[in-house]
Amino acid sequence: MKVAFYAPLKPADHPVPSGDRLMARMLIAALEASDMQVDIASRLRSRVADGNILKQARLAELGSKLAARLLRFYQIGVRPRPDIWFTYHLYYKAPDWIGPIVANTLGIPYVVAEASFAPKRAHGPWQQSHQAVEIALRHADAIFSLNRSDMECLRPICDANALHYLAPFTEIDHWQVPDRADIDRACVKLVTTAMMRGGDKLKSFEILAHALGRLKQSNIENWHLTIVGDGPARGAVEALFAARGIPERNLCFAGLCNGAQTRYHLASADLFVWPAMNEAYGMALLEAQAAGLPVLAGNTGGVPGVVSDQKTGWLVPVGDAEVFGAQLTKCLTDQINMLRPYGRDAATKAKQDHTIASASNVLGTELRNIIVNAKAGRA
Q1: Cβ(134)–Cβ(95) under 8 Å?
Q2: Given phi > 0 = left and psi -120 to 50 = alpha, else beta, which region is 281?
Q3: What is the pLDDT of residues 74-130, one digit of tens each?
Q4: What CA–CA distance (Å, rounded) separates 349 from 311?
Q5: Cβ–Cβ under 8 Å, residues 6 and 63
Q6: Residue spans of alpha helices (H) in the chain
Q7: CB 367, CB 35: distance < 8 Å
Q8: Spatial separation of the C-alpha atoms in residues 92 and 310, rounded to whole Å
Q9: 113 close to 169: Cβ distance less than 8 angstroms
Q10: Could you tell me which residues are beta bridge partners of residue 225?
Q11: HSE (CB half, 13 Å, CA atoms) of 191?
């Protein structure tokens, strides 16, 4: 069975790494693992961050033209005619201007993975894009949500039978760490992985810096933090830690790392820390748990679907720097003996619930049923 795959926010082969790019790649891997042939239908990036009405109109027009070109290519055999259209990450800032046209014209099912719906955007600068998202979701044959909190917003506009939960997943085996040394109580190794950019990422770094400053004020110095990641806000991030008086001996800015380098830093650590402001679910959190690390994170979005509070880590009210800092203090003092057991439970959970194989089974089963039913309906 042939799948036309499209990621309007960021294509899977985009040169800049991010969680969106990674999940696009993971979805393709899961589809291919279920013996489906995946074709990247388009690389058009439809994101409009500032609500520019003219830009949205231009992208809508361009999307229509690209849809027409795709349809010609399918007709003459230049591109493989798909049995189903699959769009990853659909929301008001990045609508799908191509897939609904192609799917409707070809009479094939249209499915979406990771979608959100914001009724408050029905009026205002993103009105056109919001309407496009609503139309796509109302006509979708299936919507796979990696974030249970998104599902509540989707229920009013989706057929109940079309909405499915898909647990976040990754290449678990790639991140596993067979053996870990005992924790050095004199220096507990903390690690975090995140792109350095404005908005929620910078806010998370601000909370993290506040928490570490709290440790310093309490004379708790048995820790060292490695930060994996880089980006345009690196200077601002470094300034946040400097402003809290965090000494250089307690920090390591590892910069942008490839998979093997990131795995090394996770394997060398004892606790993953990330405030997770407005985090959809957090691929970095999943990778950390796969590596056998307990996680301290903000309780938001799909994070509880990855981190089990009081079992594979600790979830605190998102955005509360004081509570985050208080729990971090406990992890470095009276709860230090829980780090390794929680880490082992985290690795077990990742291996059981968050593999490509498990996602492939869900996607393969559902998509085949949808395709078979669609063909039977046309017969």
Answers
A1: no
A2: alpha
A3: 999 999 999 999 999 999 999 999 999 999 999 999 999 999 998 889 899 999 999
A4: 10
A5: no
A6: 19-33, 53-76, 99-106, 127-138, 148-154, 172-175, 200-217, 234-243, 259-267, 283-290, 321-332, 339-353, 356-378
A7: no
A8: 35
A9: no
A10: 190, 251
A11: 26
Whole-angstrom distance, CA of residue 258 vs CA of residue 77: 38
CA 351 from centre of chain: 18
Supply the pTM of this predicted model. Answer: 0.88
Going from the C-alpha of 154 to that of each of 104, 142, 151, 169, the distances in angstroms are 21, 12, 5, 21
The mean predicted confidence, pLDDT, of the chain is: 94
Q: Both tokens of residue 171?
A: 């290449």
CA contacts within 13 A on the Cβ side of 163: 18
Distance CA 268, CA 189 (A): 7
Query: Do 297 and 283 contact (CB within 8 A), yes or no?
Result: no
- Indicate the burial class of 67 (C-beta count within 10 angstroms; 0-12, 13-18, 19 or more): buried
Tokens of 41: 């239908």
Alpha carbon distance 356, 258 (integer Å): 20
